[in-house]
Amino acid sequence: WGRIYEGGPLSDQLLYTRSLKTLKNEECAKADGTLNPSILCLNSPQSRGFCEGDDGGPAVYKNILIGIASYITKGCGSITKGGFTNVSFYKYWIQAIING
């Protein structure tokens, strides 16, 4: 539900979807200088990539939440790499919280 283009209004009425490609951590590190297993690095090969306001949005694969949008490495509307919180990295912590 982020912006559709840089500086544009937030898209609070429509949910847009994108096909994303998973990148190796080493490739992601070239873009932002960090190598962190808790980050899932994805990119959008389409010209409409991630944008401001997409933070907290889901990355879903086969109806399973795999990531939560955290940051982008370039301005929106470009072929952009994005850092997503890697949900599987926190699997045991999530289970511990749920189980109390």
Overview of this protein structure:
With 100 residues, the protein is of the alpha+beta class. The chain has a single domain (21-99), classed as Trypsin-like serine proteases (Thrombin, subunit H, Beta Barrel). It is 17% helix and 26% strand. It is built from 2 helices and 5 strands, in the order E-H-E-E-E-E-H. The chain has helices at residues 25-32, 91-99; strands at 21-22, 39-43, 58-61, 64-72, 81-86. It has a 5-stranded antiparallel β-sheet with strand order 1-2-5-4-3, with helices on one face. Strand 3 and strand 4 form a beta hairpin. The model has no long low-confidence stretch (mean pLDDT 78).
Q: What labels would you give this structure?
A:
100 residues, five-stranded antiparallel sheet, 5 strands, globular, Peptidase_S1_PA
